[in-house]
Specification:
Shape: globular
Order of helices and strands: EEEEEEEEEE
Mean pLDDT: 97
Distance between the termini: 40 Å
Largest sheet: 6 strands, mixed
Strand content: over 45%
Low-confidence stretches: none
Length: 116
């Protein structure tokens, strides 16, 4: 069955960096566009970054443009989110899913805390 396992979150000071990973299984990974989403406390889950099936096309939410990068390694069935210049507003649980997301496939996510 389809499964996403996110990792790499943690506590970081404002201005710091983190790299998130999402290991996917249960489907032909290289055929699908993938995205990162996040949910901050008290807010709706939102799109953060997406990458198409070939890896050549990416898109980002305005709030993270120029600070975050998304990539994929089809040999490892994994997508990554490199987060630089982190801000307090980036505090959230980060998830990966298809693009568009499919409700049944949300994983546990990985917590990112930005605090001094």
């Amino acid at each position: 069955q389809v499964q996403f396992v996110e990792s790499g979150g943690g506590l970081v000071q404002p201005g710091g960096s983190l790299r998130l990973s999402c290991a996917a299984s249960g489907f032909t990974f290289s055929n699908y566009a993938m995205s990162w989403y996040r949910q901050a406390p008290g807010k709706e889950r939102e799109f953060v970054a997406g990458i198409n099936y070939s890896g050549r096309g990416t898109q980002f939410a305005d709030s993270v443009k120029g600070r975050f990068a998304i990539s994929r390694d089809d040999a490892k069935n994994t997508i990554y989110l490199q987060m630089n210049s982190l801000k307090v507003d980036d505090l959230a649980v980060y998830y990966c899913n298809f693009n568009p997301p499919r409700t049944d496939y949300w994983g546990q996510g990985t917590q990112v805390t930005v605090s001094s």
